[in-house]
Each structure stands twice: as structure tokens, then as C-alpha cells.
């Protein structure tokens, strides 16, 4: 049994101690620099309002698990969760529409949610300005977490199982040997450990610095005030009966505290604080995470507040704070074992709302090797290097604070810092009028205005206002033109690694499901599974030589995982930034490429899923015969220094073949027509290969991680499946994450959705119940407040015989 140390007894540390000891991991010490059970971190003063609805299914499920757990906890006679419900308020039509979208997000994650009329909302919360309201999103299971009480209950439960909590003890250093933690140095001496879990909240960056780790966490001060007892609340005798409220339009939230109201505000300018500057417990006026209130930032808060709760006009504010908590560069928490030091785990930047779910996942991860829920969005090893710079962390953290309640489109890129990373093709893309979105910090063309000339030939159905954002009918034109001719796609942002050295084949065979014992020059699409046969990633392995593999992976998490598992003789190297990639896709791609090389590119010489090192004009390239858009074509890779020469060479030669540059919009539409899954969107570690329709990529003989579990799965008894839905009405567009219904009941959710311009219909891949996965089944997709009829269709919709790819 490993010796475990948890740093911090806030809601995260206490929940994790509870989860680990419940599973028998009781050789555990929680070290806390403050007093128990109100040690002075963010948990000690947070109002604990819990809104489960979230754009991320995983975060929503963390929240649901937190509600479920806290609702079951009692501190004496007091409940640790007050299920008073929540309402998000709309006072303008755009927000009302968005509440319908958010209701869909909640339903997709299995959360009961509905949009109420102003009258219904007013009935639930009589202090609301009924005449100002247009509607409210009501989630009956939301409410108020009594986090300090819960900490004590969970902490004492862990102690009863053998854990120790040591208070007034500060961790000052972390010991390590041979790349692994060995213990922590504290103000009360050394504590040996095999596993150290940092649950230090806003002090996370300080703990990170002890091991040389940069954490993408920015502590920010947030304003929260309480009113004096209000006559309008005089009839309420218990702590809270009224639903908690959010008025995102004014950056405000509210909760009842007996006869008073708490008002929290995100409308003030961001107030970042460096973790090193947070006062020690003994010097802090009230507690370290509470800074002195700055009334000048509060200006404007009550104006917005009285608009929706007029009674606040006469209320007196009696208690105010600038409370500290953590924001990250991408709004997700930090979870998992840091790749830089074995045994050093992190669970930080976690709201109370998600704390118990996060703790459960962490315990499963530590004990079973992987959590049940998909946590790729939260993985501590997910960041690009630029995301770990202090300027970036501060700027993005502050921006995420500003945008916390903003109405953000799913495709909306960050505004600043941009451009941050550009591929070598950027100058040419700009010349062609590229409309850029952002991927991994890179500018990535979504479409090219230069292709507007094609709009006469290719027509796209009109769209509603929401789905027209970050969209252009040019996407349709690009898709169709590529299917008929040839297009150039910048695929540089997709991650690439080299795996080389003695034993690399055997290593990759253990790590992946692919049959890799093929000749050099072969390409294999395969999966990486966890021990439960959940899909950790899908990767494309290109065998360049006996012990030389070039692999297209999905994320930094994949790279770190492979690095961690590789034996000493095998080298795993991220080559993304040093190389560039272009997709030359379309029926005329071979003719075009052939015109630039004397090597034979015929189907016989360079067949489907084969690669060749060659030259296109002067440029040394690796030419890989595959395409993610379902057409004859090549992924072409070269080193970054040749980027412009490669583009210009292809562009010049391409004139004869009608070559166009095409963006990510066309790429996505075409890949969905071809049924190609995108990891993280369409499938993740919660899904097995049979469910995801990817069992073809799993070799029969075993010998890879997850093989035993995979063998146990009965493909004829799947409880859920990823299916291809086709919307019945070609005018209907959905964007992804919407709930799927059958006879009025939620039976699944959409993953990726794009208009298929070749088939002339909207395609939506979706997870649905197994019994509803047969072709022809009629379902509906809820888009805002409309139910769009859709039918389970053939998967894929485009070229299922693969004739175009293999031609
Ligand atoms: C004003 C305000 C309002 C908020 N409202 C809500 C809300 O309504 N809903 C919601 O979900 N979230 C809310 N939050 C956010 C929420 O409070 C935090 O995200 C959450 O409490 C963080 O919990 P934690 O356990 O990670 O961190 P903390 O509670 O900060 O615990 C970290 C602990 O680590 C200890 N520690 C740090 N360094 C060391 C060291 N070197 N040695 C020993 N111990 C150490 C600290 O003393 C501290 O007790 C709010 C935050 C604020 C500030």
C-alpha cells in the first residue's frame, strides 16, 4: 500500500482523503498549514452555490457526483447540501435563447433542467422582478454546498479509517530521488511518501515551484457581499429555501442566507494575485484567501442586482470580501500525475461544484490507473509550452474571469494573444484571405475568402444566426470543390511524434491495438486503450524504418503517456513544432503530386495507407497515402524550414489542376461524411472500440494494454453506440452536444455535427442507447427549443466502399 500525502484540507483534499480511504488506501496523511476545518483557503469562505450545467459533459458529471455525495452527508442535524434548485435568468432575447441551449447541455449530461416562464420563475423566487424576466433555466437538483461542514464530515470519516490530518503544518519542500517523490519537508519535519497529491488551491503554483513545475493556474480576487436581513425575507426561518440565481447578463449570482442575500459579482476588472504574495495565515486579517474589499470595483454591481431583485435597492451591504480562487488558461482544472515527477499528483483549480467528482476520479486514477469518467480535458499534462508562461497564464486567467458568464459560441477563439503561433504557410494563407480560428495556439484557416468566387457554383442552405457564427457558405464551396478536384489543407496543428530506437516496434505493439508488424512504408490506424478497454486515443502509426516510427497523435497527454511508458532504449520525441504538414486531397491529387516527382505514385507503387520519402520539386517530403476527408490524397510532411517552398511548389503546379486552399470547416464537414471519428469529441476513455465503431482497428491476438477487457466485451450486447444521425430536413443545422430524444425522453447526445455538403444533409454523430442504434430508427435532436427529426443512417454516409480512397 503506498504512503500518500495530500497537501491541503480544503474541499478537494478532504474529499480525496475520503475517497482514497474508502477504497482502503489508508496510509494517508493530509498536511494543512491552517486550522481544521476552516483552514483559510477558498473553501473556507465560498458561498458554495452549485450550478451543474456545463459545456463539458465531464465537468457536468463531476458536478452531479458532487451534489449526489454532499446531499448524502450530514453534519449533526445539518445537511451538507441544500437542494434549493437554481435559476439562470434571462432579461434579453439572446439570453433566453441561450438558456434553451444550456438546458440542452444539461439534459445531454443527464441533468434535469427546463426553461420556465417568468410567472413560474417568480413563483419559485418572489423577490424577482417578474416584469423584467423573459424566462429562467431551472435545475431542481442544484443548490448550496455547505463545504466547510462537508470537509469536517469527510475528514473525520477518513480519520476513522486510519488517515491522519496534521494542521498548522506547512509543506516547504518536496523530496525526490531518481525522478520520483520520496516525501515532503514541512514545518513539523519530514514525512516520507510514495505519492504526494497537491490539493493546495490558490497556492498550487507555489507547490508546483517546489518541484520545478509551472502550473497554468492564476489566483484572482472575486467580490462577494452579504446584505443585512431584508424585510422581504423576514418570513423565511431556515438557512435557504429560495433557488440560487445567476444573472449572467449582469455578471451576478445570488444566494439566500436566512433573511439576507449574498451577491457575487464577476463584473469588476480582473484582480490577479501571485500565489507568492498571498499572506501567510498568521498575517492575514481574516484568512489568507480573503483580501480587503475594494469598494471601487463594486461600483455597478448593485445596479445590475436591483434590476432583477428590486428589494435590494433598500438593502444594506454589511459584509464584503475580495475572495481568492483559481482560474486556468482553458477553464478546466488540473488533474493527474505530472509527467515531470513520478508520484507527484495534482488536483487544483477545482470549484466546490466539482470537488467530489474530481476527488472520485483522482482516487480511481491513482488506484486503478484510470478514472471512469473521461478526464482528457483536465489532464495536468495537456498544456502546450506557451500555456505555461507566466504572462500567458495571467492574461488568459484574467480573460477567463471576464468571460466566466459570457455568451460564448463553441467555436469562438481567444481574442488575445493572437496571432501567437503561426505555421510556415501563414503568409500565403493571409494573402488568400484566410479566416482564422485557433488550435493549440496556432492560427488555423477555417475557410479562405479567395474561394468566394466558387459560390456561384456551389450553394449552401441558409443558417440561423447562432450557427452562422464563425461560418461561411464558402465552407460548402470548398468541400464540394475538393470532392471534384483538389484542395490544400494545412494540417500542421495535428500533433506528431517520432518513436525510434531498439525495441520500438515491441513497445508500440504493447501500447496500441494495431498490427504493426508490416514492412517499412506501411501505415496503421490503431487505438490506445486503458485496462478497461476504454479508448485513450486513436493514432496513426507510420513505419518509416525497422525501428523508426512517425505517429500522428491527438494531444500532449498522448505524448507524455508514451514517454512515461517507453523503455530506456526507445525515444519518443515531439516533432510537431519542427515540422509542417499539408493535406493534398481530392481526385486530382495524384496527378498533381506526380507532376512534381519522378518517383512512381501510381496506386500500385504507392497504395492506400502506404508512405514514401521523396521530393516534391526541391522539397524533401514524406508522402503518406491517406486522407481524413475520404478522398484520394496525401498527407505531406516536411521540416518547418521548407514550409513556404512546399506551399509554393504545390500552388504553382496546382494551377493546372484547379487547386484551391481549403480550411478546417470543409475538413470537418468532409470527415464527418466519411464517418471519421475525432478523439475527444466523438469518443473518449469512457467508450470501448465496439461501442465507438472502431473494433476494426483492434488486432485479434492480444498483447496490448486493455486486451483482456476488450475480449470480455460482447459486441452484440452493447448498451450504447455511436451512430450516424442524418437530419430529416436539410434546412436543419445542429452544432454538437445537443440532447437526442426518443418519444420525449433523453436517450443520448450529439458529439460532432456538420453539414455534409456532398450528401446535402446535416450529419450528427451521437451516442444513443444500444436498442435505438439500428439504421432507420427515428429520433429527435433538441436544438435550442426546437426538436429536429433525425434518423439513424448508414455509417458512413459517403463512400462506404472506400472506392475513392483506394482508387
Ligand atoms: C468569493 C468566492 C466565491 C466562490 N463561490 C463559489 C461557489 O459559489 N461555488 C463554487 O463551486 N465555487 C466557488 N468558489 C471557488 C471555490 O471556493 C474554490 O474553487 C474551492 O474552494 C477550492 O477548493 P480547494 O480545496 O482546491 O482549495 P482551498 O480551499 O483553498 O484549500 C487549499 C488548502 O491548501 C492549504 N495549503 C496550501 N499550501 C499549503 C502548504 N504549503 N502546506 C500545507 N497546506 C497548504 C491551504 O491552507 C488550504 O486550506 C468561490 C471562491 C471564492 C473566493
Give the secondary structure arrangement, pairings included:
Elements: E1 4-7, H1 11-22, E2 28-31, E3 49-50, H2 57-71, E4 74-75, E5 78-79, E6 81-82, E7 86-90, H3 93-108, E8 114-116, H4 118-124, E9 135-139, E10 143-145, H5 147-160, E11 164-166, E12 171-177, E13 180-186, E14 189-192, E15 195-198, H6 204-210, E16 217-227, E17 244-247, E18 252-257, E19 260-265, E20 271-272, E21 290-291, H7 295-298, H8 301-308, E22 317-328, E23 334-337, E24 344-348, H9 352-368, H10 390-402, H11 426-431, E25 434-439, E26 442-448, H12 474-484, E27 487-490, E28 495-500, H13 504-511, E29 523-529, E30 535-545, E31 548-553, H14 556-565, E32 571-574, E33 579-585, H15 589-594, E34 611-616, E35 619-624, E36 633-639, H16 643-654, E37 660-661, H17 664-673, H18 707-712, E38 720-727, E39 739-742, E40 745-756, E41 761-769, E42 778-783, E43 786-793, H19 803-806
Parallel strand pairs: 1-2, 1-15, 2-11, 7-17, 15-24, 27-37
Antiparallel strand pairs: 3-10, 4-5, 6-10, 7-9, 8-9, 12-13, 13-14, 16-19, 16-20, 16-22, 17-18, 18-19, 21-22, 23-24, 25-26, 27-33, 28-31, 28-32, 29-30, 30-31, 33-36, 34-35, 35-36, 38-41, 38-43, 39-40, 39-42, 40-41, 42-43
Helix pairs in contact: 1-5, 1-9, 2-9, 12-17
The structure holds flavin-adenine dinucleotide.
Flavin-adenine dinucleotide binds at residues 7-13, 31-34, 39-43, 46-50, 170-171, 199-203, 207, 222, 224, 264, 289, 323-325, 348, 350-353.
